Amino acid sequence: MKLKICGMKYKDNIEAVANLQPDFLGFIFYDKSARNFDSIIPDIPKSIKKVGVFVDEKLETVKEKINKFNLQAVQLHGNETPEYCAQINNVEVIKVFSIKDEFNFDVLQPYEKACDYYLFDTKGKLPGGNGYTFNWNVLNHYPSTKPYFLSGGIGLNEIESVLSFLQRKESQYCYAIDVNSKFEIEPGLKNIEKLEKFITQLSFRT
Q: Taking the model in full, what pTM does it have?
């Protein structure tokens, strides 16, 4: 199981989180977000993939950010079309879909060849970072074999729920756990002690 820590913002904190060796670090390029990133990414181990998070951004801007920050993946949190996704080359593409209590999985079909991963997040007022989970039982009906990220309000209090979920059939294609707001001291500033506890209890390093 992989781990993505999203919403990074501050240099020293980025370096401290990188020392925990997550698989992905997410940087949000969305000016309406309190975690909007407009700084310089410090040197981090090459084993950690840098993910740029975008919401209905111009394709040219996405490509500019990929080059400027040497991103290895992009996460698309808006209403981006399959055609849009297919025009992003040479990096991994993660397409986000928001869920609450139900979801029409038919919407995934056009994206099957256009992206590398799906990410399932909680439907809320904001495109991510809402701080609460969706009904994971919805994933009982996941029709694809494409690996996905599980996101939305996952924190220390959800460890038992995550462990239980990972024992069930619907987790078969769960590729990574994505965390953000439940590990923050303030938007963009992560609590290292809480992250260490999460990583240890979920055995991400094994």
A: 0.95
